[in-house]
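Board notes (copied after class):
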Amino acid sequence: MKLDEYKNIKTFIKMPYRIAQELKGNELRLYLMLLEYYNKNFDYAFPSYNSIRKYFGDGWDNKRIKQQLNKLEEKGYIKIIKTIKDNNAYSNNCYKIFFPNYQDEKELELKKLIFEQQINELEKYIENYEEKLKDKTISIDIYTFIESEIKEMQEKKQLIINEYNNCFSHDH
């Protein structure tokens, strides 16, 4: 999510607390510094390593700066864009800044309910079909069809469970 897309003030107010939970120490300080340097006209921040070093002090050498920037990129907070001058030499990096896509709590609850409802419906269908399999009077063709339907529904259920776990296994 881009900086300009944060129109919902409630989400914007909650966001710093959530970022502070995910980013620790130097990562958080560097991320906040990049936000300070963000240029709306170009849609990125572009402080040089020297500017970063001056901002944080002498303890920040190039290796430390690079490590912290890479951590921010790995976590999805920035995208490092290497820029090259006309003479093929590297210039200052540009940093595309992202906010994590935190959803409103009500939206997450609704999403959770939909997943749970889909899972429950599939479980009912599976149960119903399993009961039909107990009927000794059904033909082998119908028995085979019901078995394949059960298998398909179990696979769908597992896909929904996996998607549910992907959505809600992280603290939103």
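Comment from the instructor: The helical segments are 9-22, 25-37, 49-56, 62-74, 105-133, 140-168. The radius of gyration is 26 Å.
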